[in-house]
Amino acid sequence: MERKVMIQNETGLHARPASSFVKVASQFTSDINIEFNGKLINGKSILNILSAGLQKGAEIKIIATGADEKEAVEALENLINSKFNE
């Protein structure tokens, strides 16, 4: 399952939001990736997410594959749309 979302929080996916993303992603058994500018980023790796430099306004695609893929995509989409509660 996949869904496009836009990073909305002012600071993009810096350390705290990236940590929140990985924490939520790691709760699921599905493989979770982020597609950005044609590259696949491991959604459970904080280093990969931080090195992607995802800024406010970046459109990403959350891709989950596995038994709980629907729940994983929805949880991560909700997290991003909440602007990581910042």
UniProtKB/TrEMBL annotation:
Record CDD domains: PTS-HPr_like
Any GO BP annotation: phosphoenolpyruvate-dependent sugar phosphotransferase system
UniProt keyword terms in alphabetical order: Cytoplasm, Phosphotransferase system
Annotated Gene Ontology cellular component terms: cytoplasm
Pfam families according to UniProt: PTS-HPr
Chief location category: cytoplasm
SUPFAM superfamilies registered for this protein in UniProt: HPr-like
PROSITE patterns documented for this protein: PTS_HPR_DOM, PTS_HPR_HIS
Protein's recorded name: Phosphocarrier protein HPr
